[in-house]
Amino acid sequence: MSQEKVERYKKQKANRAKIMKKQKIESLLLKLAGLLVALVFVGWVGFSSYKQFYKEVTKTYSVDTAAVDDYLNGLGETETEE
Asked: How far apart are CA 34 and CA 15, in angstroms?
């Protein structure tokens, strides 16, 4: 081996613990980021499918109160006439 290679090997051997620790941290961060992306995707798909399949049915009712209003107005008029 040339002297250059020997020097490089010695530096790598001296810093091997730091290099391996850095690689482990990078690997862990990459896994966590992938897990976060997967969780967001699964949550989004679940929420979208829930909204799609379980639509809330709203019922509206309309009541014609004209007859009741006329009756009540008629009662008020008959009391004032007497």
From this structure: 29
Q: pTM of this prediction?
A: 0.51
pLDDT in tens, 34-48: 999 999 999 999 998
For residues 43 and 58, give the distance between their C-alpha atoms in angstroms, rounded to a whole number: 26
Rounded to whole angstroms, how far apart are CA atoms 30 and 3?
37
Q: Which domain holds residue 57?
A: 3-81
Please compute, for residue 39, the number of CA atoms within 13 A of its CA located in the half-sphere on the CB side.
6
Q: Considering its fold, how many domains does the chain have in total?
A: 1
Those residues whose C-beta lies under 8 Å from the C-beta of residue 19, and which sit 6 or more positions away, are 12
- Euclidean distance between the first and the last CA atom of the chain, given in angstroms as a whole number: 126
- Phi-psi group of 2: left, alpha or beta (phi > 0 → left; psi -120 to 50 → alpha; rest → beta): beta
